[in-house]
Amino acid sequence: MESPPTGKWKHSLLYLGSIFLILHLLHNLVAHKLLLGNDTVRVKRHPDLPLRFRSDGTFKILQVADMHFGNGMMSRCRDVLESEFEYCSDLNTTRFLKRMLEAEKPDFIAFTGDNIFGPSTADAAESLLEAFGPALESGIPWAAVLGNHDQESTMNRQELMSFISLLDYSVSQINPAAEDPITSVKGGMMTGIDGFGNYNLEVYGAPGSHLMNSSVLNLFFLDSGDRAFIQGVRTYGWIKESQLHWLRSISQGFQGQKWDSEQSADALPPATSPSLAFFHIPIPEIRQLYYKKIVGQFQEGVACSSVNSGVLQTLVSIGDVKAVFIGHDHANDFCGNLDGIWFCYGGGFGYHGYGKAGWPRRARVILAELGKGDKAWMGVETIKTWKRLDDEKLSKVDEQVLWAHQRAR
Ligand SMILES: *[C@@H]1O[C@H](CO)[C@@H](O)[C@H](O)[C@H]1NC(C)=O
Ligand SMILES: *[C@@H]1O[C@H](CO)[C@@H](O)[C@H](O)[C@H]1NC(C)=O
After folding, report:
1. Any idea where the Calcineurin-like phosphoesterase domain is (predicted)?
2. Which pTM does this prediction carry?
């Protein structure tokens, strides 16, 4: 009889043990991956809604104009200095977005179109995921409208807006919910409105304040279209009458809102809460700003539609929109005032979009601040804006007040 080979036995145990360990690790890793994969595909992550001011009485928006995202690392930068060209791609756009989120810690991100640049995009869905990536990871609620280049690859405008509205933390909508008093259709989407990506979002008052359940700031998003032919001549899209009609009906709804008369005067919001609007293509009147005092730079012609559909008149007549944020012309980054309403360019953000070599890519920040009542926060008191450049220090430039509530005291 042989004595038991203890050495061999110990080795076998060790061997079996390590196989178990490896299997266990593999299982955990793979299962984890699969679960994560499922999660991102099937279950949209929602931000806390409604949007609301912080308890310090502020609400900060980051405007990202014209990311022009292509295929990521393979899409080279345009209009950068010779020395910057070699190591520059869409990844620099992603890096800039991450830096902006880190530096400004916005409460909301507004992407104002040409988020992706169709002609350089092999797969629109992949490009959108990568372009909005930092927003999806941040957990910050965000919304987008389309520009004139987004639909130039594998998705049409409707598909793009549906996809965008289903991404994590997106509060984008394809078109307004139907509660049109004229057609009195309830539920679902309002039909007969031109474009995709017309909607509004309400921002509620500070937690714990009298206005915590009321909208004190409204954000309008509009689809300014892409291209069009007018009598055989190529031009850009424009905001149509159906969209302006919708804008008027929403605005009228706000003006009809009744505030609880039991509340003290301090707790009341201004007669109508201010609104901001976001869309891509400038309106023709912005050309007039060349001859007026502006904040920022006017460095290229305004590439708008040859059609003037009366957006400015509509905004003036409804009265609640105090400032409009646009993109499209990457080398323009100014704010100028037309008939009491500010029109501000975001300035080109993305590196694959055209720009001006040596003139840093940039982003706009919008800060709304509540007025301080005797006891608690009231409605919006001021709306300010500034920009940051994608330089070493993310230089902050051109800070200005866009609107201040005139309180009757
Ligand atoms: C692009 O990113 C790379 C890598 O982070 C960096 O070295 C380079 O300076 C960036 N280029 C520009 C123009 O910002
Ligand atoms: C706001 O709504 C919440 C939840 O319905 C309620 O508990 C709170 O008292 C309301 N506050 C005000 C100021 O209306």
Report:
1. 59-331
2. 0.87
